[in-house]
Amino acid sequence: MALFTLLKLILVVSVLYLLFKYLTRKSLPPGVRPLPGPKGKVLFRCHFFRNLLTKIPEGLPFIGRVHDVPADSTWLKFWEWSQEYGPIYQMEIFGSQHVWISSEQIANDLLSKRGAIYSDRPLIPNLPDNRTSGDYLALLGRTDTWRRQRKLGHQLMARSAQADLYSYPAVELKRLLYFMSKDPANYIAHMEEYTSRTISRLAWGSEEHAAELRVGTFGLLVTISPSGAVPNVVAPLRYLPTWMSPWKKRENARHERENKFFRGCFETVKEAHRKGESKPSYTKMFLEEQEKSGVREEEGQYIVGMMAIAGALTIGSPMQSYILAMCHYPKWQDMMREEMQRVCGDRCPTWEDRAQLPTIRAVVKEVIRWRPPVPTGIPHCLEQDDVYDGYFIPAGATIHALEWGITRDPKMYPDPENFRPERWLAPNFPTYREPLTEYPNLKGHSQFGFGRRTCQGVDIVEQELFLVMGGLAWAFDIRKKTSKWGYEVPVPTDKYTSLLIAKPEKMVFEMKPVSQDRVQMIEKEWEDLNGGRMADEGVAMNEKTQTV
Ligand code: HEM
């Protein structure tokens, strides 16, 4: 009975909201055209409502052929539409305008060159204070709080990058290679522990916060993803009172837990700092500079916390896509090994070797291009009506740089569907740049966004991916598995998870050590690092471990 009342209420609120949106929408100013795009369609990701709404005929202003957008890999549908309607098109989703861009040129023209009006963030219905609360740097509106936090974030990132991230990524690599050698089937947990432990050290000087960070990271990802929470698609649901909104209760609990966690981490560093025992970290830097920056403690705690979440959340995706790429294009491991043998002899490559190892950098960059970790991009919001190439874009529109499409432009990336790191190494490709001691690198790659909102973590991504992909190629040979009946176990190239940060579904593959000498080197390094113990008590890894 209560469920029935709830459904009725949801329906009434939704209809009133849509009616309001319809009646208050603006007509086109003279002399401009509307952007092309699919008409009368709605993005609908919840299976229950999808099935319900497929009964509604096409052509209604806000609701139409809901089955158009699949529940998984939505970016493929948005990209297909870009091939039909052009590199910039518009669609309505529950009364809101969404503009999809799949050309780097157009994304730069609007999001970078017109950054003064294209740098806001849209409201996330399941996190309705995302634009105003100082708790979410990456999701803040274009406010003074955002400017202050971004400036501080930039200082923390730049100073730690100058110190080569205090070698934290290299220390954690030893552990990663050891656990991969013992238990490759659990590669997702090992890789996500690697990213969480490294960023936990960077944020708070210790890896001990990594496990809780993974839980918090996953919680926030669900909160903000279109497929993670119903109101993110059916926006009017956010007006329901908390007692009728299970998602609001979940969100409040998540936020409270996050606040306690960040506070606890911060207090631990503060206490160590007072005793003169704190290790290098963003929090330590913040405490040292707090007077100069004028940023309150509570705000500093959240800036650091958001960096930690961003670092734990994202980098696992390209690491897992590396395994996928090697299953299908294994020859690149031989090429990386041949290069590292020449430069490093038998030892594992280090960050200091990077200038001499362009093939590893090319593999890193091509993994990011081939399987973008954020395939739909992180949306911006337009603050004023605008006209581009004669097309009208209304204020308030949500602007998506569709990474999947941008990295498939055949003029820029010939043969885009194939994994071809040589496009970064050979002069006959449009993406080639010299000198090879510096290029390819990840700076300015479209995958890290545009204009004033570009990603602040590229230095970390660059170092972690170079070390992990180089280290894995040095230690192991990854291939498709041959079953006991002699056939190759298929590894699908397109089965990705559907949250905002997309990762390949768990794969079955074969991973053999390159040599026994290298296995012994890995064991020795880990033993030295872990005080002579071969196991790590802090690690409880199994299939059920929560992944981000
Ligand atoms: C493979 C890894 C990563 C990818 C693909 C990625 C991608 C992105 C993208 C697409 C944006 C939005 C850009 C825009 O709106 O135009 C972004 C923003 C951001 N990223 Fe990253 N990111 C990664 C790793 C990191 C790391 C490791 C950190 C920090 C430790 C980080 C910190 C941030 C911050 C703070 C913002 C918000 C900037 C703002 O809104 O002003 N990211 N990232």
From TrEMBL:
Keywords: Heme, Iron, Metal-binding, Oxidoreductase. CDD domains: CYP64-like. InterPro entries: Cyt_P450, Cyt_P450_E_grp-I, Cyt_P450_sf, Cytochrome_P450_fung. It comes from the Eukaryota. Transmembrane segments: none annotated. SUPFAM superfamilies: Cytochrome P450. GO terms for molecular function: heme binding; iron ion binding; monooxygenase activity; oxidoreductase activity, acting on paired donors, with incorporation or reduction of molecular oxygen. This is Cytochrome P450.
